[in-house]
Every structure is written in C-alpha cells, then in structure tokens.
C-alpha cells in the first residue's frame, strides 16, 4: 500500500508540475536600461518543434537595485511566413513572489512585429 501511495504522489508531481520552473536557462541577451539590468533567456530543455510551430519557455529577468522582476512566457512561434508568435502561458514574479499567472493563450502577433527580445 505504501508503494502505491508513493507512486501516486510521484505521478501527481510529474503531471501537475509546470515547465515554468525549468532549470536549463540559456542566456540570449543581456542589456542595461533605466537603472536596471535585463537578462533574456530561453530554456533549452523545453524547445519543441511540432510541424510548423516552435514552442519554448522564455524568461525576462529584470534586476533593479532593490528588487528583481521575472516574467516567463511559454511561447509559440510560427515557422512559416509571415512569422508570428504568441504566449500560451505566463508567470510573473517580484522578489520571488508570484504576482500573476495566466494560462489563457494570447492572439498571434502582428506579422510585421519584431521578434527580438525587446518589450
């Protein structure tokens, strides 16, 4: 019985855990502006290609003198022209505390949008 309970708990842990807490972040861009440093990273473990779509987690970490803000997006990018992207899931943290979480997908971006890491 004890093994069944442990097995069920492990199954729940793996099923319900979010990829937003991914661990293999690769720094793509570092920039400084308005007194803060911004680090833009992609989690290489979450990159998945499905037909003409590419999905991955992206993180924007903004470090201020007294606080750190982190925004993480599960992003879907169309690999066909015109290239577009949208957010499938979103987490926001301020000083380690979750401030927002959304699982509502956004609309695809304007086809003429800039796909760089700028806000």
Can you give keywords for this protein?
119 residues, mainly beta, 7-stranded antiparallel beta sheet, 1 helix, 7 strands, 49% strand
Explain the overall architecture.
The protein is mainly β and 119 residues long. The chain has one domain (22-119). It has one helix and seven strands, in the order αβββββββ. The protein has one helix at 2-16; strands at 25-33, 36-43, 48-50, 53-63, 68-78, 85-94, 97-102. Strands 1, 2, 3, 4, 5, 6 and 7 form a seven-stranded antiparallel beta sheet that branches. The longest helix is centred in the N-terminal third of the chain and has 15 residues, at 2-16. It is globular. It starts with a helix and ends in a 17-residue tail after the last strand. Residues 8-17 have low confidence and may be disordered.
Largest sheet: 7 strands, antiparallel
Class based on secondary structure composition and strand pairing: mainly beta
Total strands: the figure is: 7
Poorly predicted segments? 8-17
Distance between the termini: 52 Å
Overall structural domain count: 1
Mean of all residue-level pLDDT scores: 81
SS summary, helix count: 1
Order of helices and strands: HEEEEEEE
The percent range for strand residues is over 45%
State the share of residues found in helices, binned by percent: 10-25%
Shape: globular
> In angstroms, what is the radius of gyration?
17 Å
């Amino acid at each position: 019985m004890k093994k069944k309970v442990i097995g069920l708990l492990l199954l729940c842990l793996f099923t319900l855990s979010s990829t937003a807490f991914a661990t293999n972040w690769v720094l793509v861009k570092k920039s400084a502006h308005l007194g803060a440093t911004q680090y833009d990273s992609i989690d290489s473990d979450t990159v998945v290609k499905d037909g003409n779509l590419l999905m991955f987690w992206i993180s924007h970490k903004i470090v201020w003198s007294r606080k750190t803000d982190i925004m993480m997006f599960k992003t879907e990018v169309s690999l066909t022209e015109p290239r577009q992207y949208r957010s499938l899931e979103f987490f926001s943290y301020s000083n380690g505390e979750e401030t927002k979480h959304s699982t509502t997908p956004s609309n695809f971006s304007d086809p003429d949008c800039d796909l760089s890491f700028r806000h």
